[in-house]
């Protein structure tokens, strides 16, 4: 402990203040400059405050050349050179020699990056989300007591159990429909808002969810990995292959609970159910008209815009709908619609539909005048009604 009294110390500093030599003033200015340059850094704590008049010795660091006022301060400062600091990126585990280099590197991760799952190809923009997803390919320890199915996360198990309980807690604010999963509701709401945030970079077509976009993008690829077990036909998507195979097997697993009609294709089944429910989720933003199919809405919008994107290669005539263009192919005599049963071809899709009833025996048009009489085509029913009215008039 210093034996000099505080009062004597102050008097000494004041008396020597005016007698300070030019050399001492220069030394003091250098130390002040050192302090200014290092203000805010960790080295500020290395030096203790010593009145200017009492500083007699300086100690230099052999590593960086910095001058300190005491041997103790120098020893503390040199320890910092010996300590190994860990400047490792927490995202990619890359190590850097300085904190500044690590900080500059971290900016690379702030840009939007894609993280791909090597197992299934799914894309994530947050690395932690990819890690959670990878667990779905690993051990599945969450067990459903109802059906013996296993899941990799508790959240997936909880969502799955709603299939058994029938619980549908996610309700659409625009209609009465409800869902057992939040992501399903989010996709459904886009039908009401006409929001289609996922766009194909090849053709510009837009979609309500990323899975539909990924499925669509395979159209632009020539690769067809899925082959039919019964013929040589190949498909880009497994679901399309499965639907095609049902033509060979005659399987129609999708049964309508309203009328008992069954379908081989789930998409056709969904459209059919809307006939019974009257659901028309696609709304025209210009006139407010609603439609059960998105494609029908797109065709309708061209009435307002006057757009006719389908052009005949033979006569340059344009059409608002692709099916009308196909019907127009009078130049080539093309018949693009083929019967899967007998192979007969037709130029119009509705003519093909009428023809198919010969094979199925379907007679959807019921006469209101003659009970129990049904017809394959509407014109047959109209003829029957007119004949019935004519007979009643004659009598």
Description:
- The protein is an alpha+beta fold and 395 residues long.
- Among the domains are: 54 residues, Double Stranded RNA Binding Domain (2-Layer Sandwich); 52 residues, Double Stranded RNA Binding Domain, CATH 3.30.160.60.
- The protein contains 14 helices and 24 strands.
- The strands form twelve sheets. The chain has a two-stranded antiparallel sheet.
- The chain is elongated.
- The N and C termini lie far apart (136 Å).
- The relative contact order is 0.03.
- The C terminus is likely disordered.
Structural key phrases:
single chain, 395 residues, alpha+beta, Double Stranded RNA Binding Domain, two-stranded antiparallel ribbon, 42% helix
Gist of the model:
Keywords: DNA-binding, Metal-binding, Nucleus, Repeat, Transcription, Transcription regulation, Ubl conjugation pathway, Zinc, Zinc-finger. This protein is α+β, with helices and mostly antiparallel strands. Helix content is 42%, strand content 12%.
């Amino acid at each position: 402990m210093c034996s000099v009294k505080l009062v004597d110390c102050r008097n000494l500093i004041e008396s020597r203040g005016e007698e300070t030599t030019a050399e001492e003033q220069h030394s003091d200015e250098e130390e002040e400059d050192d302090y200014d340059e290092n203000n805010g850094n960790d080295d500020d704590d290395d030096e203790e405050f010593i009145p200017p008049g009492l500083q007699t010795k300086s100690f230099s660091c052999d590593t960086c050349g910095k001058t300190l006022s005491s041997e103790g301060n120098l020893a503390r400062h040199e320890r910092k050179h010996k300590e190994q600091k860990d400047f490792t990126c927490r995202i990619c585990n890359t190590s850097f020699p300085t904190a500044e280099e690590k900080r500059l590197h971290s900016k690379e991760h702030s840009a939007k990056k894609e993280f791909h799952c090597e197992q299934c190809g799914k894309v994530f923009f947050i690395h932690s989300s990819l890690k959670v997803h990878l667990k779905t390919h690993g051990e599945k320890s969450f067990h459903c007591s109802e059906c013996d199915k296993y899941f990799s996360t508790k959240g997936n198990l909880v969502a799955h159990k709603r299939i058994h309980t029938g619980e549908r807690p996610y309700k659409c604010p625009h209609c009465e429909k409800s869902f057992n999963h939040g992501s399903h509701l989010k996709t459904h709401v886009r039908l009401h808002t006409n929001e289609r945030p996922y766009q194909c970079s090849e053709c510009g077509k837009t979609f309500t969810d990323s899975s539909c976009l990924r499925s669509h993008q395979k159209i632009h690829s020539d690769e067809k990995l899925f082959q039919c077990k019964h013929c040589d036909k190949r498909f880009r998507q497994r679901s399309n292959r499965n639907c095609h195979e049902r033509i060979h097997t005659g399987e129609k697993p999708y049964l309508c609970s309203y009328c008992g009609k069954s379908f081989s294709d789930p998409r056709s089944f969904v459209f059919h159910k809307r006939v019974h429910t009257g659901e028309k989720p696609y709304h025209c933003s210009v006139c407010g008209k609603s439609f059960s199919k998105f494609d029908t809405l797109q065709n309708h919008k061209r009435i307002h815009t006057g757009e006719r994107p389908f052009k005949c290669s033979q006569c340059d005539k344009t059409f608002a709908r692709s099916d009308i263009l196909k019907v127009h192919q009078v130049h080539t005599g093309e018949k693009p619609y083929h019967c899967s049963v007998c192979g007969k071809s037709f130029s119009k899709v509705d003519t093909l539909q009428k023809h198919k009833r010969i094979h199925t025996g379907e007679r959807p048009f019921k006469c209101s005048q003659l009970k129990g009489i049904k017809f394959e085509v509407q014109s047959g029913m109209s003829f029957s009604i007119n004949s019935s009215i004519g007979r009643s008039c004659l009598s």
